[in-house]
Design brief:
It is built from 14 helices and 16 strands. The chain is α/β, with parallel strands linked by helices. The strands form three sheets. Strands 5-4-6-1-7-8-2-9 form an eight-stranded mixed β-sheet, with helices on both faces. The radius of gyration is 23 Å and the shape is globular. Keywords: Hydrolase, Metal-binding.
């Protein structure tokens, strides 16, 4: 009898709040990520990879639909994703896979056709249609909390209690103390255990697993020994103006960010505003963040080791990335709700097991890539068609040593600061809801940030890589400003929704244009 074809698996890993310089394989990084570095040495690293938007729900909408924010319309956590859009799970189902979810997708379902009392109307953490949730971990991760109770911890259903530190010594920073639970009982270890159980009984068949790890998302706390793995004195100084007041004076939106970014959002029992934390506390927070990254790296190491042990590593496309970055004190901010690059520049490692990718293993490229490229890449690898809704492009050519002379020469990201169910920047600035948009153009030498109703920002990265000196009002940069504005306008025009735009009714029926080679075919 003929032997069965070898399985073709896809492991799609997303860490939350993981900024680009928190990967050891990146030049100059302080991060200790030995397992991810080993994967990078056998894969392709994309040095200039950018998330599409922030916060989590908009970012994941782009990542999982392959669409820019101005097309999918998810502006904030809680904004519904229209049911008409396809996504990576639906398309992988059409390709014959059963899309398994471990973690979350941060999706608000389309309310049209759903009743007002439907539980989906009360959460932005529903499951993206098409996924089969093998392990669902939302903001109240009940399966993990139940597991912790089985291990003898007395947290019950109180996730806030689970993330309070075990002890805190007098005078130490608020994020230094270890978590109460052991590293082997962490939510990252719990997810990895479930994922390994899933894979262990599917070694002879193809599978697609999306593993969404919550860490290093706040609260900033790490299990022992990761909480003390980094010395705060070794942490790089944040990129920011001399004082928070000077930073606030640089732009109206930044002023609102600094006035509403509270410590309680980032560590348990935090008090006051983030901008007022001491330098020593910020250095400790940075050290804790890197410890959290190393803690997740250990779990990914377990995962990759098992793939190798089970003979699956060379039959699995491995994609490891993030939804968005983390300010980590740069510009006096924590989190990601701002227009600066640290919130959007994220890691991307792709390991293609095909022999055709051998020449690129262990290399890094500097072309601009974006989160919208992930869905086309995965679909291309499994041999599925890429939906016309996708704004991104497959990276398979880069993985297999081919260059594209027409590849983008810039990265783009969007951010919308309209209010949600509570007042925020929109109210503070007194703006209409639909005039709270931000769009950024990241070129080789410039970063241009355009605001719908506020002054623009322009940074000359040649002399100001930290983006501390806004030159938008400098007349000597007038030509650069015009060029950037024109580029953004063309980008939005070129990437406007296109699902049906290549079709035209004719006397002979529906004519369908091929966007790649402009050929014409009948319906």
């Amino acid at each position: 009898m003929p032997s069965s074809p070898a399985p073709r698996n896809v492991l799609f890993v997303v860490l939350d709040h993981w900024r680009a310089d928190a990967l050891g394989a990146m030049a100059g990084s302080l991060a200790k990520t030995p397992h991810l570095d080993a994967l990078a040495a056998d894969a392709l690293v994309f040095q200039r990879h950018f998330g599409q938007c922030a916060p989590c729900a908009p970012a994941r909408a782009s990542l999982l639909t392959g669409m820019y924010q101005h097309n999918h319309g998810v502006k904030r956590n809680g904004t519904p994703l229209a049911a008409e859009f396809t996504n990576i799970a639906v398309e992988m189902s059409n390709a014959g896979y059963v899309p398994a979810l471990f973690g979350y997708t941060d999706t608000t379902l389309d309310p049209r056709g759903l009743g007002a009392n439907n539980p989906a109307m009360h959460s932005y953490e529903s499951v993206l249609p098409g996924f089969f949730p093998e392990l669902l971990l939302t903001d109240v991760p009940s399966p993990w909390l139940a597991y912790l109770e089985e291990q003898g911890y007395a947290f019950g259903t109180d996730v806030q209690a689970a993330y309070r530190p075990a002890t805190r010594m007098p005078g130490e920073g608020p994020t230094r103390a270890a978590a109460q639970f052991k590293a082997e009982h962490s939510i990252s270890a719990f997810l990895t255990d479930a994922l390994l159980r899933f894979i262990s009984v599917r070694r002879e068949q193809s599978w697609f697993a999306h593993a969404a790890y919550i860490k290093p998302h706040p609260p900033f706390i790490a299990s022992a020994p990761y909480n003390e793995m980094y010395n705060p004195a070794d942490m790089a100084k944040p990129l920011r103006k001399a004082t928070a007041e000077q930073e606030a004076a640089s732009h109206p939106l930044i002023d609102t960010c600094l006035r509403r970014t509270r410590a309680a959002h980032y560590w348990r029992d935090g008090e006051g505003l983030v901008k007022d934390m001491s330098d020593s506390d910020l250095a400790q927070l940075r050290a804790t963040y890197y410890g959290m990254v190393t803690e997740v790296d250990a779990q990914l190491g377990r995962l990759i080791a098992k793939l190798k042990e089970w003979g699956l590593y060379d039959h699995t496309l491995v994609v490891v990335t993030s939804d968005h970055g983390e300010q980590l004190g740069d510009h006096w901010l924590l989190g990601k709700e701002c227009p600066f690059e640290q919130s959007y520049h994220i890691p991307l490692i792709v390991r293609d097991p095909a022999n055709a990718a051998d020449a690129t293993r262990g290399t890094q490229i500097r072309q601009f890539t974006e989160a919208v490229d992930i869905m086309p890449t995965i679909l291309d690898w499994v041999g599925a068609a890429v939906p016309r809704q996708c704004d991104g492009h497959t990276l398979l050519g880069f993985l297999r040593g081919r260059t594209d002379s027409n590849w983008r020469d810039a990265a783009h990201w969007e951010y919308d600061y309209r209010d949600t169910w509570v007042p925020g920047a929109e109210t503070m600035l007194g703006l209409p809801m639909d005039r709270c948009g931000v769009v950024a153009l990241r070129l080789q030498n410039f970063l241009y940030i355009h605001f719908s109703a506020l002054p623009p920002l322009l940074y000359d990265l040649r002399s100001d890589p930290g983006c501390l000196d806004n030159v938008a009002a400098d007349s000597s940069y007038a030509r650069v400003m015009l060029d950037c504005a024109q580029r953004l306008l063309s980008w939005q025009m070129d990437s406007s929704r296109r699902e049906l735009t290549g079709m035209c009714a004719s006397p002979n029926g529906m004519v369908v244009r091929d966007p790649v080679n402009a050929s014409v075919s009948g319906s």
